[in-house]
Each structure stands twice: as C-alpha cells, then as structure tokens.
Amino acid sequence: MTELIAVALFTLLAVVSPGADFAMVTRSSYAQGRKAGLAAAVGIALGVQVHVLYTVFGVAVIISQSPGLFLGMKVLGAGYLIYLGYQSLTNTSRIDLEGGGQQSGWPSALRTGFLTNALNPKTMLFVISAYTQVVQPGTTLTLDFAYGAFMSFAHWAWFSLVAVFFSSARLRALMIARQRLVDRVIGLALISLGLAVAVAGVR
Q1: What are the tens digits of pLDDT across the range 63-75?
Q2: Contacts within 8 Å (CB) and 24+ apart, 4-12
Q3: Which of 55, 56, 155, 187 could be joined to 88 by an S-S link, Cβ 3.0–4.6 Å?
C-alpha cells in the first residue's frame, strides 16, 4: 500500500508540472477544438507506455549507462519540441470556433500528442525514476504494468481536463481573438523547453 501511494503521488506531481505536453494540448484544444484536445491527451497517455515498456523490460538500464544513446534521445526530443514551437511561432493561418483554417484534425493531434510524450526526455526520466526509486525490486511484472497503466491514466485524465478547459467556447473565443499572441507565447514556450533540454538537460 505504501508503494502504491508513493507511485500515485510521484505520478500526480509529475503530471501537473507544466511542460511540453501542457503547451501542446493547449494549442490543439484552442486551435482545433475539444475533439482534437482530447485526442492529444490520448496520444500523451499512449506515449507514456513507450517509456513504461522499455523501463519494465530493462532497456532503461542500457539507456542510463550509455551517455551517447541518452544524448541522442535527448537531442531528438529537443528537436521535435523546437520544431513544434517554430510551427506555432510562424503560423499565419487564421482559425475560428469551428476550426476553420486548420488543416489537421484529431488524428494529427493524436499523433502529435504521442510523439511529444514519447520523445520527451522529461517523461523518460520520470518513468525511469519511478521504477528505480519508488517501485521496489522484485515487484511482479503484473504490478509493474499496473503501475504503468496508472501513469498513463493519470496523464490522460489530467490532459483531458486541460483540453476541456481550453476548448470551452468562451475561452476559445478569447484566445482566437488574440491568436497571433497566443501562438507566439506557446511557440516560444515550446522552443524554450526544447533548448533547455538540449543545452542543460533534464534534472
């Protein structure tokens, strides 16, 4: 029971901390609507499972002991965040409450959510830390995957709430009226996160 509570608290604190997932879901929700925002939340939850799988099966040990491999994953993740930020920063298409002007819908949001999380070194270190610092050695494979399912569920639940909030009609109208400013703020946030990962690493 103590281990379960520790995993739950560790996960919840990690989920609600601001980061690339939050910025991406906010952008999808206000720009493309609730369906896209919720799809992005599902993508994030699926991305968490990538980290859970390689951690449970021991690949995390290889990653942690191979500076070159870890650096490569970090650069790849940072590059993707910078790419998303650049897209938002330079976006010139206008949108409306029906999502007009957007060329992509929920499948694109699902894919973006998945890649944003699966390539996020912050999530990678969170999952590895959870299994190495919180979960006790000798825990059954079934329980390991149950913890992983909870991590995904927590991400899905939180970011679904974020999607519902930022896709509300009134808030969308306010944000769309200031689209250029909002896109620039989100773009700069994503680029800053990417540069922080690439230059300083994740602590």
Answers
A1: 667 777 777 777 8
A2: 6/134, 7/130, 7/134, 7/135, 7/147, 7/150, 7/151, 8/150, 8/154, 10/129, 10/130, 10/134, 11/130, 11/150, 11/151, 11/154, 12/154
A3: 187
